[in-house]
C-alpha cells in the first residue's frame, strides 16, 4: 500500500509540475473546463458566459490547442438551436448584457461557416437596431433602467456591434459605435481624476444620481475596466482612416494616464473604488486589475499606447499573480478577490454609495475575474516575443493569389490563404504568429513593384492562381521578378509557400525562384488517405537551423524542390527536399511546396497534438525576424 501511495504521489507531483510549466492563461483555462464542464454558471444567455468565452477564445488563438475552441463551441451550442434561435434569450428585455456572448457566435461562424451562428448573431444585431436610446444617441443599458447609460454597456455591446459591422459589410455602423464612446467619456469623465463614473441617468430621476450631473457617486474600478476593454477591442475594427479614430485614441490615452495614476504603488493593483485607495472598507479588486492589464498591454502591442505603459502592466500582472492567484492541493489554479455582481438602482435598491461598492463581497473564480485574467494573461504572454519584428510589415500577396467567392450576404470577396480568414482556408493563425513577433500584417492587392514593396520587411506569396481557380489569373512576369529580386537583394525576406502540381502555377513562379537557385518540381508527394495523418508526417532533426522547437510536422500533397547555389536545403525527408532557403544580397528567401501554415493544419482543431505545425510557424517567424536583424548588424 505504501508503494502504491508513493507511486501515486510521484505521478501527481509530475502532473502538477507539468501543469505549472504551462502559461497562466492555459492553467486558468483548465480550471474553466474543470469547474464548468457541462455549463457555465447562470443558466441564461448572458455576459457571464460572454467574458469567459472571450478568454477561452483568446487562449485557443494563442495556443492553437483545439480543446479550447471545442469548449467555446459546446458552450454556445447549449444555447444556440439549429434554426439560430437562442435558448433563454429575450430580445424584448433590451439588455446590453445579452449582446456580449454574440462575439463568440461571430467567431464560430467565421471558423465553421455554420449558418446557425450567423442567424443567432442576426438576432442580437436586430436588438441593437431597436435598443432604446437617450436623446444624445447612447444606448440605454437595459429597458428596465430607462434613460441610463452604464460604462459596462460599452463592452457588452460595442465590440460585437463593430465585429458584426466589419464582417458583414455594415461599416457605416462604425460611426454610431465610436459616437457611443465619445458621448460616454464626455458625460462621465471626472475632471479631477480623469476617471469615469460608473453610470449616468439622463433624466436625473434616480435616487443614486448627482442631481447636477446625473452621474453615480463613485469611480468603480470594474466599470472603467469594462469601458477601456471595449474601447481597445473596437479600435481593432476601425480602419486607419476612420474620421473618429483619432478621438478614440485620444480618449484611450487620457484614460490610461488616469488609470495608472491610481495604480497602487506597493502592489501594482487597483482598488474597488479607484480614487479612495486604502480608505476604510476599500479593497484591491481582481477583475478590474486584470482588465486594466489587458487594455494596457494590448494597446502597446497594437500601437495604440506608447511602450511606457508596459511597466505598469507588468507590475500589475505580477501583483495579480501574487495577490489573487492560488493553486490548490489538486493543482487547480484559482483566482480570488473578484467582487460579485454590481449595479445601481433595481430591486433591492442599490444606491451607488461608497459603502455599497465596498460592501460587495469578493468571490473566488467569479466569471468576470476568470475571463479577464485569461485575457490579461494571453496579452502578457504575447509580449515575450514582441520586440523581434517590432514595427516591421509582413506583406501578403493578394495579386497572384486572388480567388473570389460570394459570402453569405452575396458580396464578392477575395478568399483562400488570407490573413482575415478564420476558416480552414485562411492563414489567420499564421498572421497572429507574425503579430506576436511584433510584425504588422498587411495585404498587397496590386502587382508588386519597387514602391509598394519598399515598406515591407517580409513579402509572402502563397499558392499563385491557375485558371481553374481564377479565370483572370495573373502571372509573375519579368517586371515583377526584377522588383521582387531587387527588394530581396536590398534586405527583404521573401516567403514562398507554393502547392503541388495541378493546384498551383509553376512556370512563371519558377522563373522568379531561379534568381535564388530554387525550382519547384511539378509533382505531388505525401498523399494522405482520410485521417491517416501519419502518412503526412515529417520528422525534423534536432539540429535544424530553422525549426528549433518543432520536432514532428504534417505536410500533405506538396511539391518537392531542386536547388543550386545560393539555395540550401533546410529540411529533407526520404531524400526529397522539402524546405530550402537562400541568401541573396542582404536578404533571404524561404520556400516550401505547400501553403502549409493555413489554419486547417495549425489551429489545433484537426491534427492530433503530436504534430507541431504551430511550433513550426513560430520557428519560421523567429527565423524571419533573425534575418532582418542580421541585415541591420
Walkthrough of the structure:
The protein contains 19 helices and 19 strands. The relative contact order is 0.08. It is an alpha/beta fold. Mean pLDDT is 95; it is low at 1-18. The protein is elongated, with a radius of gyration of 26 Å. The protein has helices at 2-21, 24-35, 47-63, 66-77, 102-112, 115-130, 151-167, 173-188, 221-235, 245-261, 286-302, 310-324, 354-359, 367-382, 428-436, 450-453, 478-489, 507-513, 613-632, and strands spanning 148-150, 199-201, 325-327, 333-335, 338-339, 362-363, 393-397, 403-406, 412-415, 440-444, 458-462, 493-497, 518-520, 537-539, 552-554, 561-563, 567-573, 576-584, 587-592. The termini are far apart. Helix 3 (47-63) packs antiparallel against helix 4 (66-77).
Keywords:
633 residues; alpha/beta; 7-stranded mixed beta sheet; two-stranded antiparallel sheet; 19 helices; 19 strands; 41% helix; disordered N terminus
Q: Per the principal axes of the C-alpha atoms, what is the gross shape?
A: elongated
The count of helical stretches stands at 19
Q: How many angstroms separate the termini?
A: 63 Å
Strand order of the largest sheet: 10-7-11-12-19-18-17
Structural class: alpha/beta
Oligomer designation: single chain
Query: What's the Cα radius of gyration?
Result: 26 Å
Low-confidence residue ranges: 1-18
Major beta sheet summary: 7 strands, mixed
Amino acid at each position: 500500500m505504501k508503494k502504491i501511495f508513493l507511486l501515486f504521489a510521484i505521478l501527481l507531483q509530475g502532473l502538477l509540475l507539468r501543469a505549472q510549466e504551462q502559461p497562466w492563461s492555459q492553467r486558468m483555462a483548465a480550471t474553466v473546463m474543470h469547474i464548468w464542464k457541462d455549463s457555465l454558471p447562470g443558466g441564461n444567455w448572458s455576459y457571464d458566459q460572454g467574458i469567459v468565452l472571450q478568454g477561452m477564445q483568446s487562449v485557443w488563438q494563442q495556443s492553437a490547442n483545439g480543446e479550447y475552441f471545442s469548449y467555446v463551441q459546446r458552450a454556445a451550442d447549449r444555447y444556440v438551436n439549429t434554426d439560430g434561435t437562442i435558448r433563454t434569450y429575450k430580445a424584448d428585455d433590451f439588455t446590453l448584457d445579452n449582446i456580449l456572448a454574440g462575439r463568440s457566435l461571430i467567431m464560430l461562424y467565421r471558423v465553421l461557416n455554420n449558418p446557425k451562428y450567423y442567424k443567432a448573431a442576426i438576432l442580437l444585431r436586430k436588438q441593437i437596431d431597436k435598443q432604446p436610446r437617450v436623446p444624445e444617441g447612447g444606448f440605454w443599458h437595459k429597458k428596465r433602467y430607462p434613460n441610463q447609460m452604464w460604462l459596462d454597456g460599452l463592452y457588452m455591446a460595442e465590440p460585437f456591434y463593430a465585429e458584426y459591422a466589419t464582417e458583414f459589410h455594415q461599416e457605416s455602423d462604425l460611426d454610431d459605435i465610436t459616437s457611443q464612446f465619445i458621448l460616454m467619456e464626455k458625460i462621465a469623465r471626472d475632471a479631477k481624476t480623469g476617471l469615469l463614473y460608473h453610470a449616468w441617468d439622463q433624466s436625473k430621476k434616480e435616487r443614486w444620481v448627482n442631481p447636477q450631473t446625473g452621474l453615480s457617486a463613485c469611480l468603480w474600478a470594474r466599470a472603467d475596466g469594462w469601458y477601456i476593454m471595449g474601447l481597445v477591442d473596437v479600435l481593432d475594427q476601425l480602419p486607419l482612416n476612420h474620421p473618429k479614430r483619432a478621438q478614440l485614441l485620444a480618449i484611450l490615452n487620457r484614460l490610461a494616464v488616469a488609470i495608472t495614476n491610481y495604480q497602487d504603488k506597493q502592489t501594482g493593483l487597483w482598488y474597488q473604488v479607484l480614487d479612495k485607495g486604502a480608505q476604510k472598507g476599500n479593497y484591491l479588486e481582481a477583475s478590474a486589475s486584470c482588465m486594466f492589464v489587458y487594455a494596457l498591454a494590448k494597446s502597446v502591442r497594437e500601437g495604440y499606447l506608447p511602450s511606457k505603459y508596459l511597466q505598469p502592466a507588468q507590475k500589475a500582472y505580477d501583483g495579480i499573480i501574487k495577490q489573487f492567484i492560488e493553486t490548490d492541493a489538486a493543482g487547480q489554479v484559482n483566482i480570488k478577490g473578484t467582487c460579485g455582481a454590481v449595479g445601481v438602482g433595481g430591486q433591492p435598491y442599490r444606491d451607488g454609495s461608497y459603502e455599497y461598492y465596498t460592501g460587495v463581497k469578493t468571490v473566488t473564480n467569479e466569471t468576470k475575474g476568470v475571463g479577464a485574467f485569461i485575457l490579461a494573461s494571453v496579452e502578457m504572454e504575447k509580449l515575450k516575443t514582441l520586440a523581434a519584428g517590432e514595427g516591421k510589415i509582413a506583406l501578403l500577396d493578394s495579386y497572384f493569389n486572388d480567388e473570389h467567392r460570394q459570402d453569405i450576404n452575396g458580396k464578392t470577396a477575395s478568399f483562400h490563404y488570407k490573413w482575415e480568414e478564420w476558416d480552414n482556408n485562411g492563414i489567420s493563425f499564421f498572421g497572429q504568429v507574425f503579430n506576436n513577433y511584433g510584425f504588422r500584417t498587411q495585404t498587397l492587392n496590386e502587382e508588386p513593384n519597387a514602391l509598394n514593396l519598399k515598406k515591407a520587411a517580409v513579402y509572402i506569396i502563397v499558392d499563385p492562381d491557375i485558371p481553374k481557380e481564377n479565370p483572370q489569373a495573373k502571372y509573375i512576369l519579368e517586371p515583377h521578378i526584377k522588383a521582387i529580386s531587387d527588394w530581396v537583394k536590398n534586405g527583404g525576406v521573401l516567403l514562398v509557400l507554393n502547392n503541388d502540381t495541378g493546384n498551383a502555377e509553376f512556370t512563371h513562379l519558377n522563373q522568379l525562384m531561379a534568381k535564388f537557385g530554387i525550382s519547384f518540381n511539378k509533382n505531388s508527394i505525401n498523399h494522405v488517405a482520410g485521417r491517416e495523418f501519419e502518412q503526412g508526417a515529417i520528422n525534423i532533426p534536432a539540429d535544424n537551423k530553422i525549426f528549433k522547437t518543432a520536432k514532428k510536422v504534417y505536410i500533405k500533397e506538396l511539391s518537392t524542390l531542386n536547388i543550386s547555389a545560393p539555395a540550401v536545403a533546410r529540411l529533407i525527408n526520404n531524400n526529397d527536399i522539402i524546405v530550402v532557403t537562400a541568401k541573396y544580397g542582404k536578404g533571404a528567401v524561404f520556400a516550401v511546396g505547400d501553403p502549409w501554415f493555413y489554419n486547417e493544419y495549425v489551429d489545433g482543431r484537426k491534427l492530433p497534438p503530436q504534430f507541431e505545425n504551430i511550433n513550426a510557424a513560430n520557428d519560421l517567424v523567429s527565423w524571419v525576424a533573425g534575418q532582418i536583424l542580421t541585415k541591420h548588424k
